[in-house]
């Protein structure tokens, strides 16, 4: 078994080429994107035709004066769009790589789960997602594998095991599994690194600190009921104020923050009062609570959830439909009150859905302009990642195309500001995907 110290981000990151050969980012050839129009992550228009020079893993220069030197790899843009890599701030790389039957199988091993997640991580990178925030699950080994060059995948901001009260949204016990607190045996999900069932201030503190010890960049707590679970109604509020405050204090001592799973106004208001900085979901919030999120300067990390499965039990279907129906109000009010908005997918237990990751960005068209959408899935999502402060696993600026920023870039066949639908079909429309200065996708370019 890998020693826990090896799960932490390595001081020098190794990147993997499409051939599977690990290389140092700083050893990659210099790259010049010639004759490109730049979406910088913030503007509502593209730049005039220009050049962008990359050295190592950093954008070194932008402008017509940026030239190719000896040994520079030149990519002819021919007027295409160069933009920041996409960012998804609510993924579950392990839970999203396996269906429920496989996750519940007694034969599932950590190694098999990591291998499945690694396959999905590679596909995610090739779709243009160069950074993600993993919002709960056993992911430290996968992250270490990507950072070392064993696997290909996006940069990962890991939360580690979700932290849940008994009977909470992260209480994944089977009906046959009894409480660790009373009967002494951890559940299989706890042993797997999927969850901490923690009750009371002391246990919440210990669970928070345990995740931080293993390299969590932020902490994820379950503060309310969920739509994908059987034992907690979606209307319930989870964790007492003092329990939430304990997690916030422990995270802040490490220079980072707490994000909570919550849908209802009661749960979100309690979390905000405790100092929580990121609300995950929130589709059932009333207008006043969304305004309160803006007033407190917290983030609202929203999603457009997929429809229920045909074989979902009726109570789960009802919960999912309520969440889906609340999405319009949540997005509209968040825009109205200028809430710090972030976007993610939150795919769970349905690996086939992962292929729709880019298409789900296009669902934002009913509320936002193409420029607003592109800004959200690049610059704005990067600002939420930056909230991890010193616990951020990668140092440097993401979500923008500017001198000094990290070289996470996509070359798009066309103008996504004029036709946002280009983002929804990466196989056809992404000519180059670069992460940390290394090219992982190069379709039709030399």
UniProtKB/TrEMBL annotation:
One of the Pfam families matching this protein, by short name: Amidohydro_1
EC primary class: hydrolase
Keywords: Hydrolase, Signal
Record carries keyword Hydrolase: yes
EC number(s) given by UniProt: 3.5.2.7
GO MF entries: imidazolonepropionase activity
Extent of the signal sequence: 1-25
Domain Amidohydrolase-related: 81-438
InterPro entries per record: Amidohydro-rel, Metal-dep_hydrolase_composite, Metal_Hydrolase, Metallo-dep_Hydrolase, OTAase-like
Protein name: Imidazolonepropionase
Naturally occurring in which organism (per UniProt): Edaphosphingomonas haloaromaticamans
Organismal lineage: Bacteria, Pseudomonadati, Pseudomonadota, Alphaproteobacteria, Sphingomonadales
Annotated gene: hutI_8
């Amino acid at each position: 078994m890998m020693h826990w110290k090896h799960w932490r981000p390595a001081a020098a990151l190794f990147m993997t080429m499409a051939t599977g050969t690990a290389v140092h980012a700083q050893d990659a050839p210099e790259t010049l994107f010639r004759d490109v129009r730049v979406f910088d992550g913030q503007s509502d228009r593209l730049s005039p035709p220009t050049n962008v020079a990359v050295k190592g893993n950093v954008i070194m220069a932008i402008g017509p004066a940026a030239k190719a030197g000896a040994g520079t790899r030149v990519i002819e843009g021919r007027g295409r769009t160069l933009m920041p890599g996409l960012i998804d701030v609510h993924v579950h790389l392990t839970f999203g790589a396996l269906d429920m039957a496989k996750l519940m199988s007694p034969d599932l091993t950590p190694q098999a789960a990591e291998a499945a997640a690694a396959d999905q991580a590679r596909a995610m990178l090739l779709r243009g997602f160069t950074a993600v925030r993993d919002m709960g699950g056993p992911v430290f080994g996968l992250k270490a594998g990507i950072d070392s060059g064993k696997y290909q995948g996006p940069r990962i901001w890991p939360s580690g095991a979700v932290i849940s009260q008994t009977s909470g949204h992260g209480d994944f016990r089977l009906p046959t599994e009894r409480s660790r607190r009373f009967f002494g045996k951890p559940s299989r999900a706890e042993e797997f690194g999927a969850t901490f069932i923690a009750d009371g201030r002391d246990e919440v503190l210990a669970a928070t600190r345990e995740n931080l010890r293993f390299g969590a960049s932020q902490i994820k707590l379950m503060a309310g009921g969920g739509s994908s679970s059987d034992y907690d109604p979606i209307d319930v509020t989870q964790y007492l104020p003092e329990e939430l405050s304990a997690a916030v204090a422990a995270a802040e001592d490490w220079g980072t923050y707490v994000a909570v799973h919550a849908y209802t106004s009661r749960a979100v208001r309690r979390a905000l009062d405790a100092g929580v900085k990121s609300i995950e979901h929130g589709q059932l919030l009333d207008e006043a609570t969304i305004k309160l999120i803006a007033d407190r300067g917290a983030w609202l990390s929203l999603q457009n959830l997929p429809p229920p499965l045909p074989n979902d039990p009726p109570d789960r279907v009802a919960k999912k439909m309520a969440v889906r129906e609340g999405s319009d109000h949540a997005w509209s009010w968040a825009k109205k009150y200028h809430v710090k908005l972030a976007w993610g997918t939150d795919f769970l237990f349905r690996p086939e859905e992962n292929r729709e990751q880019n298409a789900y960005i296009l669902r934002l068209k009913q509320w936002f302009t193409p420029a607003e959408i592109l800004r959200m899935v690049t610059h704005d999502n990067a600002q939420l990642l930056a909230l991890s402060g010193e616990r951020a696993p990668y140092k440097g600026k993401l979500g923008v195309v500017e001198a000094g920023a990290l070289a996470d870039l996509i070359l798009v066949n066309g103008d996504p500001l004029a036709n946002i639908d280009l983002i929804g079909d990466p196989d056809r429309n992404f000519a180059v995907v670069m992460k940390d200065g290394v090219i992982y996708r190069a379709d039709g370019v030399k």
